[in-house]
Design goal:
It contains 23 helices and 19 strands.
Length: about 650
C-alpha cells in the first residue's frame, strides 16, 4: 500500500471535463419566466407599455408578429427606447412560441429581437430616452445575446453556420440578408477551419478550478476544427479534435452589401466570428464594446475527449504505444502539440510534463496564464508529450530533434525572432529534460556510458547515430529561460529498490530497443560497465540519486544568456512516515534535491508533488517570469513590471 501511495503521488493528472447542462444557462430564464408553467411572458414594463398604447392582452395570444407591426408603426412616428426594447422582448417571446411549429418564423423573430436590442443600445435616436443605469439596459444586452444564441441554434441545427454563408430573415422593419464573416485581423483561423459549433451555455466546467469570462455582447461558442487537404505546415502539430473559443456578434450595416462594399437593395447584416484570444472588444458607432467571451469552457470541452484520459499511464507502462502513428496523420503520437494555431511573432512557451503524466497536467496553469491579456498577446503555448517510462536523457535527445524540426518547418530561413526567445517550463522529470536542452555535453556524458570512444564502438550506423545524438549535444540557442518545478536535480529517493523493481515489472519497453541494446552489449564486451547509463532501462531507475548523470548536469557549462528559475515544493503537514522515508519535500522530491544553485529566482510553494504546478503561488511565479521576460526583451525595467503586478507575485 505504501508503494502504491507513492506511485499515485508521483504523477498522473485528474481528468478535466465538463458536464452537459439540462437547460442552457441564460439570464432570460428568470427574466421572462421561460421555465415556468405560466410562462413565457413579457416583463412588467413591457406589459405596462402595451397597456399605455391600448394594446391589450388579446394581442399577446398566438402569432406576435401583428403586434410587432403595430409597435413598429408607433415607433416610426414616435421613436422611444421603451418601445424598441418592448419589441425586442416580444420578438424573442414570439420566437420561443414559433420554434415548436415553424423554424423559419422563429429565426425571423429571433433576428428581429437581436436587431431591436441593437437599436436600443446603439441607435442615436434613443440616446435621449435611454438610461444606461436602468436595469433595462442590461436586460437589452441579455436579449441581444439570448436572441442571437437562439437564432444560431436554429442555423447550427441545419449546419448552415460557416464563414461566407448567407441567410435571410424577415422582420417588421424589412428583409435582411445576414452574411457570416471573419473580421479582418481577427486571429489565425481560416474559413475552412470550422467543422461545427457547440454552445458554451450548454456546458458546465467541472474539471478546471477557474472559469475565465468577459461579459459583454455576443454569443460564446466552441468551434471544432476541421482537417482539410490544404493545411499549413504547423497543422501537423495540432491535436485531433482541436476546439477553440469563438464569439459571434451580429452587426447591421444598412443597405451596404458586405460582399461588395457598395450600396445594395436590401438591408444587410454581418455575423462576425471573433477570436477572443486576439480581441475581447469591437467598435460600434465609434464606441468600444466588450464582447462576451469564454476562454475556459472550449478548453474543458477539448479535455473531455475520452482518448486523453489514459495518456499518462500509457506513456509510463507502454512507451511503445506513444511511438505509434497518430490515427489522423502519419506522425507519432508522442511529440510537440500546439493548443492554438502557430502565430509568427508570438514567443513559444513549451511545457514539458513529468513522470506518469501528460500535457493534460498543465491545463490548470495554462488556463490561468492564458487569461492574462498581455501573456496571450505575446506568447503561444506548446506542449510536449513523451513516453515517461524511458530514461529522461533519451527523451531530452528526442526533444532536441523535435525542436530543431519544428524550427526548420515553420521558420526555415531563420527570420522569426520570437523563435529565439523561447521559454521552457518543466515539471518533475520534465524539468530535467528541459535543462538538458541548454547544456553542452563535451565528452562528459559519453564517459558515463562507455570506456572507449564512440567511434570505436561496434554498432550499426543507425545505433551509433542515436548514441551520438543522445550523449553528444550542444545547447539549443533559441531557449532563453528554463523554469523547473518540483524537479529532482539530484535525484529522488522515491526511486529505490522497491519502486524500481515494481515499475521494472510493469513498464513494457519497446522490444526493438531491447534487442538493439542486447546486441550492442554482446558485440562490445567490457565496454559498458555495470553503472553505464546504457544499462539504465526505465525512467524510475534514471531518477535514483546515485545515477551519475546528476553531478555532471549540475557542473555542465551553461550559456550566459540562459536564465534558470526554480520552484520547490514542500508538502504541508507531511506524514511522519513519508518524512522519514524521503525527507522534507513535496512527498516525492526531497527539498535538498529540488534546490538549484544557479537559479536567478527560486521560491518555495506549500504543495505536494502532483499538484504544485497548479498551485496559485506557482502559477503566479510563472506569470511573473513570463512578464519579466517580456520586460527585458522590451527594454523595460524589472521595477516597472513589479509596480504593475500584485504584491503576492513579487519575489520576496
Amino acid at each position: 500500500m505504501l508503494v502504491l501511495a507513492m506511485l499515485l503521488a508521483a504523477g498522473g493528472c485528474a481528468s478535466k471535463n465538463i458536464a452537459l447542462r439540462s437547460v442552457p444557462k441564460s439570464p432570460l430564464i428568470e427574466q421572462l419566466d421561460l421555465a415556468s408553467f405560466s410562462g413565457p411572458k413579457p416583463s412588467r414594463r413591457t406589459t405596462q407599455l402595451l397597456r399605455v398604447y391600448n394594446l391589450g392582452d388579446d394581442n399577446l395570444t398566438g402569432d406576435l408578429r401583428p403586434l410587432l407591426g403595430k409597435l413598429q408603426a408607433i415607433n416610426d412616428g414616435e421613436p422611444s427606447a421603451d418601445i424598441v426594447y418592448a419589441m425586442s422582448e416580444l420578438a424573442f417571446l414570439g420566437g420561443k412560441k414559433a420554434e415548436r411549429y415553424d423554424k423559419q418564423a422563429a429565426l425571423d423573430l429571433y433576428g428581429a429581437s437581436v436587431l431591436h436590442a441593437y437599436d436600443y443600445l446603439f441607435d442615436r435616436r434613443y440616446y435621449a430616452t435611454r438610461n444606461p443605469y436602468d436595469p433595462q439596459y442590461r436586460s437589452a444586452c441579455d436579449l441581444y445575446n439570448g436572441a442571437l444564441e437562439s437564432a444560431l441554434r436554429i442555423v447550427c441545427a441545419e449546419k448552415a453556420l460557416a464563414p461566407g454563408t448567407i441567410m435571410t430573415i424577415s422582420t417588421a422593419s424589412g428583409t435582411w440578408d445576414v452574411t457570416c464573416v471573419l473580421p479582418g485581423g481577427q486571429g489565425t483561423w481560416r474559413p475552412e477551419d470550422f467543422e461545427r459549433f457547440e454552445f458554451v451555455s450548454d456546458y458546465e466546467v467541472t474539471g478546471l478550478k477557474n472559469l475565465y469570462l468577459t461579459h459583454g455582447l455576443g454569443v460564446p461558442l466552441i468551434a471544432i476544427r476541421r482537417r482539410g487537404p490544404d493545411e499549413p505546415p504547423a497543422a501537423k502539430y495540432y491535436p485531433p479534435g482541436m476546439s477553440f473559443p469563438v464569439t459571434a456578434f451580429l452587426r447591421p450595416v444598412g443597405k451596404i452589401d458586405p460582399r461588395t462594399g457598395r450600396l445594395g437593395e436590401r438591408n444587410q447584416c454581418v455575423l462576425e466570428l471573433y477570436d477572443p484570444l486576439t480581441t475581447n472588444e469591437t467598435l460600434v458607432a465609434g464606441r468600444r464594446v466588450p464582447l462576451e467571451c469564454d476562454l475556459t469552457t472550449p478548453l474543458a470541452y477539448f479535455l473531455s475527449r475520452p482518448e486523453l484520459e489514459n495518456l499518462a499511464t500509457v506513456g509510463l507502462l507502454w512507451p511503445e504505444a506513444l511511438l505509434a502513428l497518430r490515427p489522423d496523420r502519419p506522425e507519432p503520437i508522442m511529440g510537440l502539440y500546439m493548443a492554438q494555431p502557430y502565430e509568427p511573432g508570438k514567443i513559444p512557451v513549451l511545457m514539458v510534463h513529468g513522470l506518469w503524466s501528460s500535457p493534460m497536467t498543465w491545463m490548470e496553469m495554462f488556463n490561468d496564464l492564458r487569461s492574462q491579456p498581455e501573456i496571450r498577446r505575446r506568447y503561444q503555448f506548446w506542449f510536449y508529450l513523451y513516453p515517461t517510462g524511458q530514461p529522461f536523457w533519451l527523451i531530452a535527445a528526442q526533444l532536441r530533434h523535435d525542436l530543431a524540426r519544428v524550427r526548420e518547418e515553420l521558420d526555415p530561413h531563420r527570420r522569426e525572432p520570437a523563435f529565439d526567445r523561447m521559454v521552457l517550463v518543466g515539471h518533475s522529470m520534465g524539468g530535467l529534460v528541459s535543462r538538458l536542452q541548454t547544456l553542452s555535453s563535451g565528452d562528459d556524458y559519453w564517459r558515463l556510458v562507455g570506456r572507449k570512444p564512440l567511434g570505436s564502438i561496434k554498432a550499426d550506423p543507425k545505433i551509433r547515430e542515436q548514441l551520438a545524438e543522445t550523449f553528444y549535444f550542444r545547447p539549443n540557442p533559441s531557449i532563453r529561460r528554463v523554469v523547473s518545478i518540483a524537479t529532482p536535480h539530484r535525484g529522488s529517493t522515491f526511486s529505490n529498490q522497491t519502486t524500481q523493481w515494481l515499475l521494472g515489472k510493469l513498464i513494457h519497453l519497446p522490444q526493438k530497443i531491447i534487442n538493439s541494446q542486447q546486441k550492442l552489449f554482446r558485440e562490445n564486451q567490457g565496454v559498458f560497465a555495470g553503472d553505464s547509463l546504457l544499462r539504465i532501462d526505465t525512467s524510475i531507475d534514471s531518477l535514483a540519486p546515485e545515477t551519475p548523470i546528476f553531478p555532471v548536469m549540475l557542473a555542465s557549462r551553461r550559456l550566459p544568456w540562459v536564465k534558470y528559475h526554480n520552484i520547490v515544493g514542500v508538502m504541508p503537514d507531511q506524514p511522519w512516515w513519508l518524512l522519514n522515508l524521503i525527507g522534507e519535500g513535496d512527498g516525492v522530491v526531497p527539498r535538498d534535491s529540488a534546490q538549484l544553485d544557479d537559479a536567478v529566482s527560486q521560491i518555495t510553494v506549500p504543495a505536494d508533488h502532483s499538484t504544485i504546478h497548479a498551485h496559485p503561488a506557482a502559477v503566479l511565479e510563472v506569470r511573473r517570469i513570463l512578464l519579466e521576460h517580456l520586460a527585458e526583451l522590451d527594454g523595460r525595467s524589472a521595477a516597472g513590471i513589479a509596480r504593475r503586478t500584485p504584491a503576492i507575485m513579487r519575489r520576496q
